[in-house]
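Troubleshooting: if your tokenizer reports a length mismatch, compare your output against this known-good record of 674 residues.
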Amino acid sequence: MRILVVEDDPGIGFLLETILATHKYAVDVATDGQAGLDLSDVYEYDAILLDVTLPKKDGISVCREIRAKGNTVPILLLTALDSAADRTRGLDAGADDYLSKPFDRDELLARLRAILRRSHAPTAPILTWGSLQLDPVSTDVTFGDRLVPVTPKEYALLELFLRNSKRVFSCNAILDHLCSFDTPGEDVIRTHIKGLRHKLKQVGAAADFIETVYGIGYRLKPIESSGATLLTDTWEKFKGQVHEQVAILEQLAVRFFNQDLQSDWQAIGKNIAHSLTGSLGTFGFSLSSELARQIEKLLGSDRDLTTAQGQLLLSLVTALREELDRPIVTTDLHSFTPDLTTDILLVSADRDLNCKIQSMATDFRSVRVGDSLPLGAASASAERLRQRGWNVQIVPTIAAARSQLHRDRTRSILLTEAESEQTEAVLGLLVEINRQVPLVPVIALTNPDRLDPIVQHLGNWTSVCPTKIADLMESIDRAIAEAESAQTHVLVVDDDLKILAILHALLLPWGFKITTLADSQKFWEILPMCKPDLLILDVEMPIVSGLDLCKSIRDRAEYANLPIIFLTAHTEPTLIQQVFAIGADDFVTKPVIGPEIIARITNLMERQQIQKLKSAQWQRIDAERVKLATKAKIQAALMAINAAVSADNTLQARQSRPILEQVDILCKLLLDPD
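Known-good structure output:
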């Protein structure tokens, strides 16, 4: 896990870094509040240790600004100020915990583990890959029953791979995720990978447990399918028992409304749900496991259920039954095909609304051209919606929606009024969808004034109060179109129409917007119109080659930083050197392989985004330096005027007084810190 320490005292900063590194945390250190805030914008941290008394910007202000941006990273405040008022002020600013100086090492680590557990509560506590296990709480790494003695950097590498098991990471991507911007080069990462492989091999793992994907980077070696077969066989053996447990939950939910319940019915239901939470996750039913977890939480209350809670229980159990009726799906780690697409992820326990939305999706697909359209929709827009077809997935809680995001590609999320007012849960959802490509629009069925101000200012959020289902569908359609128009736009230039078709088919399902061009002579007509985020150029094209295009692109200042990937069927060193010499960022050999092109685009765009954030950070620093220098010059000039006026005895007092008053006004106007 990666921790940010914001501490201006060099001794305490070094002590914190040493303690955390010893316990296998990757650590970045900032020595003032503004630098800490900038780093929290650039990198995704698991927790922040924040001193209160800091130069440039105090810790309380930093904490408030982090929370105002919707960032829910756990924050532990460290300070010598330990009054009740100070603690209250820190916690009200959004901190998760408070530790006074001088602090005890064991207490610091315990409090850090506690806030990390709370922030990762919805996820499995132990990360596994075959026989490999990593426990984020104890920081132990085991293979089978043998302990793997990893260093802090090796631990951070393993955790990164295990939390992103499908992804291929380049050395640059690993550096960006785990290290500060002043870290040494890629050779350091290769050394850590080599050492980690050696240690894993010593405890019985394959020599290529961390696999090299040639020309791209590293990933965990895909698990053989025999394990999937074994898991499927085990599920078939216990499937009947699981369905019986769900049937009991269904009976309890129905009896609640019939008021035909025994006194300990909640305890019985809670125990069944607890059992399902663990077993279903093991069999690969991640969403079903989350639903069972929500049922367990609901039934675990000491109070009797209200009618509304009984309705929620019935919705959760019904959703659980529907999920278990789906066939078991085992992940094919060799495949880079994205999951199924959900057009609308509806978060609602309202069965009437759920039925209307599902009916709407069916009605729009079944109506014939020329028929009167359902729900009073306008002819043109409703027909367009009908032709697209809709896949609607319904979940009863926001927690279940977050789990669903990892399962299918989701194009929009629809929240009812009740769900949209759960501010903390909504913020967690928004943080989750900010990692999706493209960003997923969230539509709330409520008046905008009822939303929390912090939620209102976060992107990709729309609030509507439609009078017709058809109006709602148009709002969803518009929100999806706006989100997808902002997605990464790739312009592919190649004279081979087959290559253009292949790249379109490979990239489109992954959320990229694709424009293809077969005639390179029209490049400068197309480029200003489509404004791509990334170019893919073929090397060899008639009349105007990719190399010529690249040279002309780099000669224009407005396109100097446009990422360029070359396609080539040749791998001669001289050609590769030429490609990079004229300003290309990467190259891909033909025939094009899906995983390679996806990984290269993803890594390149992620790298560029981080560089933009870093550049903006340094621009802010330079602007602040210029501002401070200007203020110093103004203040010196005003002091000189003041001294000259005061020393000039030839001026009468009534003449010098207005000058001094004007100097005072200038001081207030030009030197005001606001």
